[in-house]
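Task: complex structure prediction.
Instruction: return structure tokens for all chains below.
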Amino acid sequence: MKPPRFDYVRPASIDEALGLLAEHGGNASILAGGQSLIPMLNLRMAQPALLIDIKGIPGLGGISRDGDQLVIGAASRHNEVLHSPLVRNAAPLLGLALQHVAHEAIRNRGTLGGSLALADPSAELPACAVCLSADIMAASVRGERTIPAEDFFEDLYATALAPDELIVRVQFPACDDGWRFAFDEVVRRRGDFAIAGVAIAVRPQNDTIADCRIVFFGIESAPKRARGAEAVLAGSSLSASVRERACAALDDDLTPIASGEYSPAYRRHLATVLLARVLDQMPAGHNGRL
Amino acid sequence: MDDYSEPTTDIACTVNGAQVHTRVPVRQSLVDWLRHGLGLTGSHVGCEHGICGACHVVVDNRVVRGCLMLAVEAEGQQIVTIETAAPSDQVRALQDAFYERAAVQCGFCTPGMILQAADLLTSNPAPTRAEIRETLSGNYCRCTGYQAIVDAVEAAAHALRRWPTGNGADASPDRSRRDDSRNQQE
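Output:
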């Protein structure tokens, strides 16, 4: 239960970190909060030759509002995001989700960029990034590029990030008061990784749903929108029959993970249970903040 | 790296108020360094992958898992462990209450529980039992069944509300006063 040997370096600037990544790429791991990397090292599931500790680098933290964008530095800790008034106003879904992310001591260290880069299929924040149409900004010595969250998560622990790229910040479109959000998950013990969960954003207009986005996690190998269920809900009221049809549409929407502790049938069952639960929360929403 | 070299690096930080300059293996966890390097064995090593909470220490005023942080990451930081000579009022009240309420059996989880509960009582002087359970959800106890632990945190919160306000050892009431408040509760 001790990590394998590795070399350790603490670059002082983003450029220096990117240079190291360009040189070492796949043999290096970025150390940010370390709340997933260090367990993986201790269990020897990861054996990088080099750890690049980015915590001291100026410009990777901070939460700010830039016009209609909420900009969160990749090294922002979960608790900073959870308690940020800017986040509460512009992306309240993140706060709903972060209450479920691990425990206080881990939220004090873990980072947003780290969670996204790891792409654990049962993690909360990747699903939120997809649900909120976030843009993930990745830098390398070749320059900076924007990766929409929907294109970022490719498979189990696999992302669109190249080996020499570093997430530097994440931009969330600030949502106006017209949106309502709900978040729920099924978990064996509070704070554990979820068996399955769902993030939902709904924009009601009069008595119908003008727009909605539904993203599950822990069900498929990577979070993606459940477009069939979204199509059922769009333009409809939240009647019992619409809810039923939305849940039924998940059958075609989802391709559950076939391996692991839980069967695909059970994961499908949880998806319908979770969608029904978050839809039930919708009428209770007020001013976009449940 | 050849077959035998162990990469090490220099770190400087404070531990329980004392300046420490030393060289550590870069792969050594913070809690292993505190225990083996400094002899501070009050932080315990349980699961070593962030599940059990026995290794909790305070880094720059925040409770963290000592097994999920490398010693090198402590560079420039202020570390406080359960051994501190200047425990906060919250820590002292919890230590008394855990003893009083028999919230300790083998004691392995206790330092981690107390540091996490002290953090709660600092920000929330009157937590509900549900809030106490939520806060301690990341701390395993395999002996007591938690009931007595939640009782003890509640009792400590109650006792603290009867203490004069102020933080730190200087502002703490003396021992007899604390015993009085305890007696009133019973």
